[in-house]
Amino acid sequence: MNNINLDKVTKILSEVRNKIPLVHCITNYVTINDCANILLSYGASPAMCEAYDEVFDFVKLSSALYINLGTLNKEQEQAAVLASTSAKIHDIPVVLDPVACAAVPKKIQVINRILQVGKIDVIKGNIGEIKFLAGQSSNVKGVDSFDTGEGALECCIALSQKYKCTVAATGKKDFITDGKRSAVIENGTEMFTKVTGSGCMLGALCGAACGASEDKFTATVNAILSMNIAGEEAFKAANTPGSFRVKLIDCIYQLSEEKLKEGAKIVWK
């Protein structure tokens, strides 16, 4: 393992806790509370602001913008596009979670509009969503991916080069790239698939990490590694879904650089 890269990755955790980045979240109603709480435990400050009349001005006060398309309604759509425009004007990093984009064509229209008038620094989705965005066939059912990791890194690299951003595809293994540097994370737990919102919480953490670091690739690797190692720790203490969900937030709070270094299973590409 490249220890220089790992040192840079684990340091992001301390940067988040020192800077306490304000993460402006336009996210879905199913997981909004979990996203806010996991951001607090990670060391960031959440703001769940989605009113169209407020988002343009609020973005410029924020450290990062997280857009999740999970339960998209008309006001959220308009707010997300306007917020991304403000992020481009004020140079605020944007993390996009293209939830169910492979199942709902409308979401692609919104993504294209955001790319047209705003900006995206990180796209974080499950493997099925990322393959779909990269123009490949994918195995999805609603918001869930049943895709394997075969070809996932290549799709991430193609999408990253197309949109000039960091791309992460999550699954049994997680694939992250900025088109030049790539990492495959082999940490995690199957219990993530038994609770609603683990992907949404991860997207929020990506926003916090990107709000604390200029290096969006390293920041995204830290967020995913942090989520996975916390998940592994939570599963040791709570191996049923309800208690796991609560313990996960506790374990995010208890993370340290040392825990990340000791537990990391990363293959650098």
UniProtKB/TrEMBL annotation:
Keyword field contains Kinase: yes
Role of this protein: Catalyzes the phosphorylation of the hydroxyl group of 4-methyl-5-beta-hydroxyethylthiazole (THZ).
Binding site for ATP: K124, T170
Catalysis performed (reactions): 5-(2-hydroxyethyl)-4-methylthiazole + ATP = 4-methyl-5-(2-phosphooxyethyl)-thiazole + ADP + H(+)
EC numbers for this chain: 2.7.1.50
Signal peptide start and end residues: none
Listed name of the protein: Hydroxyethylthiazole kinase
Superkingdom of source: Bacteria
Keywords: ATP-binding, Kinase, Magnesium, Metal-binding, Nucleotide-binding, Thiamine biosynthesis, Transferase
Family of the protein in this entry: Belongs to the Thz kinase family.
Enzyme class, UniProt record, top EC level: transferase
Pathway this chain belongs to: Cofactor biosynthesis; thiamine diphosphate biosynthesis; 4-methyl-5-(2-phosphoethyl)-thiazole from 5-(2-hydroxyethyl)-4-methylthiazole: step 1/1
UniProt GO molecular function: hydroxyethylthiazole kinase activity
Primary gene name: thiM
Binding site for substrate: M48, G197
Naturally occurring in which organism (per UniProt): Clostridium aromativorans
Cofactor: Mg(2+)
One Pfam family of this chain: HK
